[in-house]
Specification:
This protein is α/β, with parallel strands linked by helices and about 210 residues long. It has eight helices and nine strands. The chain is about 45% helix and about 20% strand. The longest helix has 25 residues, at about 185-210. GO terms for molecular function: ATP binding; GMP kinase activity. Pfam families: Guanylate_kin. It catalyses: GMP + ATP = GDP + ADP.
């Protein structure tokens, strides 16, 4: 019943086609996304996720994440306020309907930065996004990137690496992602990302010019 409700909800939501951006932590999704939002100001909107984890140094509530309590988030999920949610390393993460709607209401391309479990959840709706997977060049490079952050315990890091390995295998399954981009060179990866989205970008730019 809930899935059917979401399907009706998103069928009725007018606006630009959203983008689902997925990939392992450390693959470079955030860097690519920041470049995209900077170059195409007034075209993209970032769907800010909710999480129960504590903010890292430099992160801002409402910008990087909505930082909430486990009780609040579980109650919101139970009410059906979330499109997708997942638990990783003991912390809850999720995308609320309101965060997507807020972006679409501005006639912006809504970007959802979500994990593989979230991707599967979105696929049960009629949101109809463009699915993009950002992949590191290798597991050894990914491990180095994560270690260089110095934000993970060894146990947490190993969990992330294991999850990344699983996600990279799943990403090869046909029908899950429209495009898989290997982030070996940031410029090349960004070029492929823009090429994938340029049609939707032009539609939004044309609409904004005529409005």
């Amino acid at each position: 019943m809930y899935t059917r409700y979401l399907s009706r909800l998103f069928s009725a939501m007018a606006g630009p086609r959203p983008v689902v951006l997925s990939g392992p932590s450390g693959a470079g999704k955030s860097t690519l996304l920041k470049k995209l939002l900077k170059e195409y100001e007034g075209v993209f909107g970032f769907s800010v996720s909710h999480t129960t984890r504590s903010p890292r140094p430099g992160e801002e509530n409402g910008k990087d994440y909505h930082y909430v309590t486990r009780e609040y988030m579980q109650a919101s999920i139970d009410k059906g306020d979330f499109i997708e949610s997942a638990v990783f390393s003991g912390n809850m993460y999720g995308t609320s309907r309101a965060s997507v709607q807020a972006v679409k209401d501005k006639n912006l391309i809504c970007v959802l930065d979500i994990d593989m479990q979230g991707v599967r959840a979105v696929k049960t709706t009629d949101l109809n996004p463009i699915y993009i997977f950002i992949q590191p060049p290798s597991m050894s490079i990914l491990e180095k990137r994560l270690r260089d952050r110095e934000t993970e315990s060894e146990e947490s890091l190993q969990k992330r690496l294991h999850a990344a390995q699983v996600d990279m295998v799943i990403s090869k399954d046909p029908g899950i992602f429209d495009v898989v981009i290997v982030n070996d060179s940031l410029d090349d990866a960004y070029g492929k990302l823009k090429d994938t989205l340029i049609e939707e970008i032009k539609k939004v730019q044309k609409t904004n010019l005529s409005s």
